[in-house]
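In this supplementary section we document a worked example of the pipeline. Step one takes a protein sequence of length 344 as its only input; no multiple sequence alignment statistics are reported here. Step two produces a three-dimensional model, which step three serialises into structure tokens for compact storage. The input and output of this example are shown verbatim.
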Amino acid sequence: MTTPFPVLAEMSLPSPVRRLESFGNGNELWLKDDSHIHPIYGGNKCRKLARLLRKAAQKGARQVVTFGAAGSHHVLATSLLAQASGFSVRAFVVPQPWTAHAEQVLRASVASGAELLTLKSWVEVLQVGTQLWSSGTLLIPPGGSNISGSLGYFDAALELAVQIERGELPEPDTIVVPFGTTGTAAGLLAGLEYSGLKSKVVGVSVLRAPARAGLARAIADAILRELNERGRARRNELVIDSRWVGRGYGFETDEGRGAAERAQSLDLPLDPSYTAKAFAAAWALGEGRNHDSYGGRPIAMPNVPQRILYWHTLSAPCSLQSESDGANPVPVKFQQLLRPCPAS
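The serialised model returned by step three reads:
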């Protein structure tokens, strides 16, 4: 995919793939690693923003406005990549549970040069969002998860199909991704349908909101309609695995900590809110442990060896590091957004 922005033309694609583990039951766990696809900010946010900022340019926008939790990677990525592409950035942020990782992301967002404004809740986000539209502004939803943003992972699914055709990895039976604002899973659903791959998508939920599965399928269908495809995203391709949510969005879990420790030996840093939970689920599927999804329906895994692809969506840690890390405290009005976690 080409882009009119020099900063996003620096994307290094395709992202690499490698086998992580072969289990005694014959299952294999593979990795597709998006962490280094851009020198400023990689991960799934970069893929979405490549499409979203193109739309902003086509609209003639001079500013992008977005929303996210205090430790949102989407807010940080938008702040860095949109400004580097010539747009001003305004971002509204809401509270979330404190973790060291969330504080690090928040510190980087504050230092990014974007205009950050605080809101008390996601209800206020809905109220503010309806008042911000203008001809010179592009509103980007949380996570960049609308049709335009999801097209970034439609592109990624086609990229995966080429890698399979080249023999870089076998076609996965299951693709595991974090499932938050739905855009990554939605784009993959549409891209898999379009490319003819039969992989099932397992979205590892990071919050309790089951209606999002329907939203993901609706976005996938809309992408296919825009491409004049007669088919619709197959309804059995998306399964939501909710076992790993824990106490809710942003909270660390014991399983996530264990997954992060295991991933360290594989040179794969994880974050507690998204990728630690998704990697825990992917490893469990590799071991043959199936989990309940929304509605109590177990994830059906055939009694034959399975190839599971964990798609890593977190930007490389270097995107968060700066000489000021730890030296300049987060301003109080933003620090208050990171709420202390109650005892387990």
